[in-house]
Amino acid sequence: MTDASLHIPTRSVPADQAGLGDYWQLLKPRLMSLSVFTALVGLLVAPGTPHPILGAASILWIALGAGASGALNMWFDADIDRVMKRTRKRPIPAGRVAPGDALALGLFLTGVSVVMLGLTANWVAAGWLAFTIFFYAVIYSMWLKRTTSWNTVIGGLAGAFPPMIGWAAATGATPLEAWLLVGLIFMWTPPHFWALALFVKLDYHEARIPMLTVTHGREETRRQALLYSVGLAIVSIWVATTSIGGPLTLAVAVVLNAVFVKRAWDMFRRSDAASEADGHAVEKGLFKWSLFYLFAHFSVFVIEAALGPWGGW
């Protein structure tokens, strides 16, 4: 990625151009909220009851760790963010925050979040938080995203770890159930982002990001999205049969996955012409459903945990 068109100017940015909202945007608050939500679910469904203050503090440090990942990602991706329509107004490419300031913020939040989570909860959780930040900032942002169409699949692990970190913060351990929560998000991520890529394909082309839509075409992207949707359903049902599941979880999982796979099937059967004709309605529908799917699925885990022996197997 050495083309001059993707070069970010090294000029300094006047400090008075950046507001608190710009630095908040650097933390990718939408992704941070997803990490906080799934980490909280992991903490709540884990066996035992952590002290409320320590639990809340642990979630705060996990949130800061997620924000650190976002800042480091925006620092490194500023060149391609400047090219893509949906990202060119971000603080760095828009010139409101200097790249060095974003890097400093990301590194500072990394240190604070990892050390404080270790002191507040335990060093198992802190170690996984540090690994997650490294995975997202280095393995995904600096390597996978720009070099391979596997970027969404392998890189999705970074967003899949928070529930396990929450579980580890509560118990100091990472049993099978915690890993299945990771697996659920891991299988959810590809169809979620591929549905998005199908209706923002031109952005990825212009930024030279090797998304599956760019390297293998839309037809293969739809096929892979369907395959991962089926895999997601399998993992989802598996989780429902474990100690954190129950009849309610299983029933909700069946409904959620039936709709998810049906939408993925409808998308798979689409032609490019039909997709363009209706403004990518099916692709956008799957993308929106995937957001509801994850929220509903993780919410039912908490409900099942609250029901205790009345709701479990």
UniProtKB/TrEMBL annotation:
GO terms for molecular function: protoheme IX farnesyltransferase activity. The chain crosses the membrane at residues 31-47, 53-76, 97-119, 125-143, 150-172, 178-204, 225-241, 247-265, 286-307. It catalyses: heme b + (2E,6E)-farnesyl diphosphate + H2O = Fe(II)-heme o + diphosphate. Pathway: Porphyrin-containing compound metabolism; heme O biosynthesis; heme O from protoheme: step 1/1. It is found in: Cell membrane. It is a multi-pass membrane protein. Keywords: Cell membrane, Heme biosynthesis, Membrane, Transferase, Transmembrane, Transmembrane helix. It comes from the Bacteria. Interacts with CtaA. Converts heme B (protoheme IX) to heme O by substitution of the vinyl group on carbon 2 of heme B porphyrin ring with a hydroxyethyl farnesyl side group. This is Protoheme IX farnesyltransferase. It comes from Jannaschia seohaensis. The gene is ctaB.
